[in-house]
Amino acid sequence: MATNVSNFSDLIQRVAASCLLHPLAAGGHESGDVDAVAHTVIEEYNNSSEDEEKENGVKDVEKSRRIRRVWNNGEKEMVTLIEEVFEAVAEMKKAYVRLQEAHCPWDPERMRGADMAVVGELRRLGVLRERFKRGRRGGCGGGVVAMLRVVVAPYEAAVEELKRELKVKEVEIENLKEKLNTVTCLSNGGKKRGLSKWKVGCSQVLAVAPDPELFEATMSQMKEASKSFTSLLLSLMREARWDVAAAVRSIEAATATPDTATQTTTITPSVAANHHAKYALESYVTRKFFQGFDHETFYMDGSLSSLLNPDQYRRECFTQYRDMKAMEPVELLGILPTCHFGKFCFKKYLAIVHPKMEESLFGDLEQRSQVMAGNHPRSQFYREFLRLAKAIWLLHLLAFSLDPSPSQFEASRGAEFHPHYMESVVKFSGGLVPAGQIVGFPVSPGFNLGNGSVVKARVYLAART
């Protein structure tokens, strides 16, 4: 460059000297001479510059050209990358909108497809991020890097959130596997302590075959669950300011048969309402639950497996009993909401809890709406209901596991008290039932077992009038 500057200065000096020696005149030939000199000098300068560039600047020129080519290629690649990022973002938004639309109305298939589309776009953004990182290491422009960071950051956060949710699901899966192992251990006769709060011995937990003693122990569990649910229902009725005495009279009338409806034996409403209304309410609940107990599916369908293949059906029932015994009903229905037990719960809830009753107790029909939609509410009331439903379902499975099956009986209203087949829900002083007591209304049924033993029917007694 210094040589070029020097040549250029020399050129100026030569042109100036030519002008001094040949002053401008009117004739064109003199001007032409000056032009010829200048032309000659400039041509020499250009030639010398080209020679200089060839000798000293070839390497720099080639380097500059290579840099320009690399930069152009990198710029094109970055522009393409940005376009792909924006395209992925647009598709991500569309997929997320479809995912939201699939929630209302509820459409599992559309939700699954939209969810896969969202995950696919997230993965696509992950690939673009890796390309961006490689380009960054190759020397991308700082402004482009900053812009891409802003665009990609929200989706990186979404990916991290999905990873955390995945870890939570993995923990849930491990818990379910542990519970499954527990059930398998129990079904194979493994030892497990502290699983029952009721008076059930280790023989029930480790039972390998159905027997009458196991049926009696399961019946005791059912009684405890029935008392617990009835107490909760009665407390809700009192909080809602129900006329409990009127409810008792209605239940008493419902238990009357055509033969006993004209009898003069009645229960004093004030006494029943004030002291023993819970027994009348328990009578109502158990009567609804035990309707259809003699059929293998509570008449939910027309199955006749117990008649066509009795031995196989008994084995299947006892297997179901052992598998279900250690599981919480909420967990079971969370996995299989529409299994036979789930359908049993739907049917019995709608039969026991009348719409007016639910609206009076809870102020709305939300739980009923969930049940009718095939779901299971998470309320305390429904949990207690499921506990009783499970106890009766287990009793039913065990009844169809025994050979011969237990025969069910119920004390009728107005019948004479028989201590061999009945037990009073009200305890009398001295433990003996006074003479002249008759059945006011039945509370829960009894069973005759194959070994000759009897599970007594529970009754509410009243004095003969």
UniProtKB/TrEMBL annotation:
GO terms for biological process: negative gravitropism; response to red or far red light. Pfam families: DUF641 (PF04859), GIL1_IRKI_C (PF24994). Residues 409-460 form the GIL1/IRKI C-terminal domain. Residues 159-186 form a coiled coil. It comes from the Eukaryota. Keywords: Coiled coil. Residues 76-191 form the DUF641 domain. This is Protein GRAVITROPIC IN THE LIGHT 1-like. It comes from Durio zibethinus (Durian). The gene is LOC111301340.
